[in-house]
Structure formats: C-alpha cells, structure tokens
C-alpha cells in the first residue's frame, strides 16, 4: 500500500473483506513522533514495521438483528531514540503496539461503548481512514512516561560503588559473627568444669 492509500483507507471495506496489510514507516513520516526524538540521536529517522488485519464479528444490534461488526487489529514494532531521564544519555527505546479496535460509525457511538473492556479500543471509522495517524497516535501512547535505560551505563558503576555503601550492614553481620557463640561459651565452661575435676 502506498503512503497515500494508508492515509485514505476504506476501513469498513478493509474489515469487511478481512484484508491484511503490512509495511514500514519512518519516524520522519510521523512529525509528532519525530518531535520526541532528541537532536543528538545518532539516527533520528528510525523505522517501524506495522501489520494491520481487518475482520468482522457478528453482533446483536439494538434492533435485535445480527450484523457484522467491523474490527481492526494493529501491531507496530520498532525502536526510537530517547533521552534517559536518569543519566541524560540518548538510548534506543523499543516500542511495541498490539491493539484491537472496534470500528464504530460516529463519536457518539464510540462514547456509548463500555470502557470496562481493556482488550478492545474503539475508533471512529471512515471511508478515508488515516492509518498512519493511528499508528503515530499508538506509538506516542506507548512512549514511556519517564524514558530511561533498564540499567544506565554510568549508573551501573554507581551501583557497584553503592555496594560499598552496604559495608556498615556487612560489618554489622561480621560483628554478629565475631560475637562469641553462646554454645561455644557453654562448651568452654563445661571444659573448665572437666578441668576442675582433675
Ligand atoms: Zn540512563
């Protein structure tokens, strides 16, 4: 699918005919994502791969009849450069999106949909649906609230130094060990007792 097609997708037809599509999007094609990438990143224009799959589920309508309810499943994978908030170095953050959407016709219908379903999100469909916009929106939502390394390169060293800070505890444990064992003392008393017998 061309980028133009992706921005004007007949999502109802896509779902109804159970179509599948896949492709790659560069961060530079998603301006709001690009704005999140620091200028000092080694490669700001990273690539995300995506897969989309349409489907329908027969569902009971308000009028009591069954009708095919359109759904869209979307998966997006890739990495983006962010600034670690702990050590302030740029690092590569992997992002994964796997979402299922119930496609409704109007905002009002979307508002009616119960929010207690964590598995399914609701989107308002269109004959000219912007799939790139949806992918960008999901990537923005999947960004960590506080970007940071799992283990910072510098913080790792300070962690090692931090173990030195634990010394008082270890010293305390050694003090425990250095304290005479009460049973050993008892043994010595017994020995003393036996000595006295001679
Ligand atoms: Zn870090």
TrEMBL record:
GO terms for cellular component: cytosol
Keyword tRNA-binding applies: no
Disordered: annotated segments: 159-198
Keywords: Ribosome biogenesis
Gene Ontology biological-process annotations: ribosome biogenesis
InterPro entries in alphabetical order: YceD, YceD_bac
Annotated Acidic residues bias: 164-173
Highest rank taxon of the organism: Bacteria
Family: Belongs to the DUF177 domain family.
Functional note: Plays a role in synthesis, processing and/or stability of 23S rRNA.
Name under which the protein is recorded: Large ribosomal RNA subunit accumulation protein YceD
Organism annotation: Caballeronia insecticola
